[in-house]
Amino acid sequence: MLIQRASDIPSSEITPERLYSNRREFIKTASSALGTAAVISILPGCMNSSASGTAQNKARGPYDTDEKQTPYEDIISYNNYYEFGIDKSDPIKYSKNFKTKPWTVSVEGMVKKPATYALEDLTKGFAMEDRVYRMRCVEAWSMVIPWMGFPLAELVKRLEPTPSAKYVEFKTILDPSQMPGQKPSIFGGGLHWPYTEGLRLDEAMNPLAFIAMGIYGKSLPNQDGAPLRLVTPWKYGFKGVKAIVKIRFTDKQPLTAWMEASPQEYGFYANVNPQVDHPRWSQASERRIGEFYKRRTLMFNGYAEQVAQLYSGLDLRKNF
Ligand code: MTE
Q: What kind and span of H or E run contains 231?
């Protein structure tokens, strides 16, 4: 993002993965990633969720788009994950041996249940849901991704922020021994580590805000943010912090990694907005991965009905 790139959207000739949610595969990989206890807690959710049956034919939830889903092969091979390099093809190559088990998440700040949680305890009992979301990157490309996970609001409610908490901050793991981009070099694209993102608490409670642990019914590949990452489909993709190890509740707006690196280019809100250009390129249109022609970018990425009220009274030109 900091590094200027030519338009580098690959034309996808890849045959889409059979569009079904492979629940058995998810359970198998999840049990190795999370341990049996976690999978037992996931299982009832999988059974209740719309994960069974074909993703194309299933009854869609109120938040799902029915647009053509981006092929699995594209979702896992065209990534932004600067800890593993600045090129879109780096994360799939360099994250292969990234260790996601055991995994802990430390919960800190203005919250009634601060602790370091094993991932399986943090997510225990949450039903795994499918959410097919349009995703728009600040670099003006987009995808449609069938995520699997749970609403962020469920997690926030479980952790019980205190009344003074106004924001929630997320941090990615800091481990240069596994993440070459975190070593002092230009490999990491000029970011300060660990990668940090944040939401206002009311944004975090919006039903669209989601913690993903899978795609296409399989556990999340390392390059897509395993074992858990944030998904906020009305915001530019950089909000979607990967491999989360820290969640902190605070009354101050968190300093996000991209704001710290380049505040004139990247704001805290990061709402998809075709009317506010990035200083170096337009945000009016986008290229959907796999398509040739550009399409018009929609306000809040097409989710205005669900989220516009969060920003009433806010000048979106200043608060980009
Ligand atoms: N999270 C971490 N830890 N490091 C990153 O470099 N890149 C962000 C976001 N989350 C990034 C990250 C950006 S710029 C985008 S567009 C999305 O991840 C891309 O998610 P995807 O690779 O799963 O499509």
A: strand 229-231
Q: Is the CB of 78 under 6 A from ligand 1?
A: no
Q: What three-state secondary structure class fits 177?
A: coil
Determine contact, residues 100/221, Cβ cutoff 8 Å.
no
Q: Which residues of the chain have pLDDT under 50?
A: 3-55, 57
Pocket test for ligand 1, best of 94, 222, 235, 238 (most atoms within 8 A of CB): 238
Output Rg (C-alpha) for the chain, integer angstroms: 18
- Please give the pLDDT value at position 190: 81
Residue 182 to residue 184: CA distance in whole angstroms: 6
Q: At what angle do helices 36-48 and 23-34 cross, to 10 degrees?
A: 150
- Per CATH, the number for 51-311 is 3.90.420.10
**Token couple for 41:** 């807690």
What pLDDT does residue 3 have? 42
Strands 229-231 and 196-200, how do they pair? unpaired
Q: Find, among 274, 241, 271, the residue nearest to 256 by Cα.
A: 241
The total number of residues shown for the chain amounts to: 320
Tokens of 278: 């990035």
Task: Supply the pTM of this predicted model.
Answer: 0.85
pLDDT in tens, 3-44: 444 343 333 322 233 323 344 444 444 444 444 444 333 333
102 CA → ligand 1 middle, Å: 22
Q: Is 82 in the pocket of ligand 1 (CB under 6 A)?
A: yes
pLDDT number for residue 60: 83
Q: Which atom of ligand 1 is nearest to the CA of 230?
A: 10
Q: Calculate the alpha carbon distances from 51 to 25, 48, 127 in Å.
A: 12, 8, 11
Q: Hey, whose CA ends up nearest to atom 19 of ligand 1?
A: 80
Q: Is the CB of 242 under 6 A from ligand 1?
A: yes
Rounded to a whole number, what is the distance in angstroms from the first to the last CA of the chain? 16
Pairing, β 167-172 against β 210-215: unpaired
